[in-house]
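The methods section describes the discrete structure representation at length, but only in general terms. What matters is that the chain and its backbone geometry are given together, residue for residue. Nothing conveys this as quickly as seeing an actual entry. For illustration, here is how one protein appears when written out as sequence plus structure tokens:
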Amino acid sequence: CSLRAMRPALPGFHFSLLQRRHNPSLDEVVKYSGIVAAGIVVGLIGYSSIHLVMSVSASDWSRYFAKTPEILFGMAVDYLRVFIVTGISFILAMFLGYYLVVHRRVGTISLPTIQSLSAFPAPAYFPLVFAAVAPFLFHLGPGVATELLVLFLCFISTFYYVFFGFWVGVRSIPTEFWEIMQNYNMGFFSK
């Protein structure tokens, strides 16, 4: 539908206001000023980077490069931790979201609780969780306790987003599909 076709529906509206007047000199000024601004930003970043590299001594650079394998290993462990937590939160959110959609009575009780907990950012109530479980976890060793607490903090930071997205998606499935799945006696994994 073009604007010209809508002319009878909009009496008194001047379509000449919507037409962009082409001004080549203004377009070129905007184009070249953007290029100049981008060039200035790139030049300042390049100058700062060169200045930073030149201000560090060669012995410091060799020490930093010697630590590179250790840093890369630490990054790999951290990415592994993120993948594990994301996988666990996805699997738990998938099963819990499906269960709460199918069992509506359980959902009426547990969903407000989950929504109340998700309203607060995880760092807001994590100190309470830490105070409650730290005495029990530090018997496992300080490294193990720290890792478990970090995994738990990452889990509660990602779980709610995955859970609500999946729960809303499953809940929006039309009732006809649920009836068809029930008539065919489909199991959990078939659905």
Summary: The chain has a mean pLDDT of 83. The CA atoms of residues 53 and 173 lie 57 Å apart. The first helix runs from residue 24 to 55.
